[in-house]
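Preliminary data (for renewal application), magnesium ion complex.
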Amino acid sequence: MSHPHISLTRFLIEEQRAGRVNAELRLLVEVVARACKTISIAVGKGALGGVLGEAGTGNIQGEAQKKLDVIANDVLLEANAWGGHLAGLASEEMDHSMPIPDVYPRGNYLLLFDPLDGSSNIDVNVSVGTIFSVLRCPEGVTTPADEHYLQPGTEQVAAGYCVYGPQTTLVLTVGHGTHAFTLDREVGSFILTTRGMRIPEETKEFAVNASNQRFWEAPMQRYVGDLLAGKDGPRGKDFNMRWIASMVADVHRILTRGGIFSYPLDSKCAPKGGKLRLMYEANPMSLLVEQAGGAASTGRQRMLEVQPNGLHMRVPVFLGSKAEVEAAVSYHRSHDAGAA
Ligand SMILES: O=P(O)(O)OC[C@H]1O[C@](O)(COP(=O)(O)O)[C@@H](O)[C@@H]1O
Ligand SMILES: [Mg+2]
Ligand SMILES: [Mg+2]
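Predicted structure:
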């Protein structure tokens, strides 16, 4: 094995010794990681475990829930309810946040999660994942409600995702870099495989659902038009495209080798403010990307400075290689300034 055997537990203890996390946050991250292991096993079973297909229920997003959306949500609820590190939690699959019942030991953190990201790929054996974000519970609040979660992404004390693909990989930040841990299925523990992921500033790879092109705003049309024009166009270089339609998998590729991921505003999702959700998709991914030297924006504002106005608020998303995100933003800025 090429990597020194640093388990997630040992890594977090070292972070605690260095004063970068406290014991409570360390144990919270461990609980979430353990839940991801359980979800990874369920995902891995697929049809054999009867976990594919529709659950027959819907969520506040107006989406039909998949069985694995519900299973993953239940695993995270169960694992975190009695963990003792939380004051409350919120999920893509639950209308409102849930304060930890006072029969359980309570903690000082708020956990938000997308229990199963990439739901449209579950039944076709393509990578899916879990995304999470951790905030502090405001001082003096013992029974947190939805409004206590409405903190900008800069307030996150930890963020991560776990991608369930050929490998199960947990990617984590506690505010000091972004690090990847691969699940050693024989041992059953996450092992540090990349310390300090870095996203190249420049890239030749973009990810967008191009089937939405006719619904995009003018600056987005021009931005992608110039990417597709390649080296003979204003960008002077050829670009390649990828779209897995699982945000976790697309972002993992970008954290690994660079690129830009975007889910822009389009006339279909504009009434909702966008497609992807700020609190448990865009914000955690943006913190991971920024901690790896990348950038994240709505196209018009740094993502982590967006003031949330609801638990399930949606936003346009541009994230990845710094220079490329800045390029995408500049198309929107010059358009808004009437210069283009
Ligand atoms: O179906 P589209 O338009 O390609 O959208 C794909 C996007 O939607 C998502 O699946 C939304 O997340 P959920 O699966 O958690 O609802 C993202 O993972 C992905 O980036
Ligand atoms: Mg999602
Ligand atoms: Mg989801």
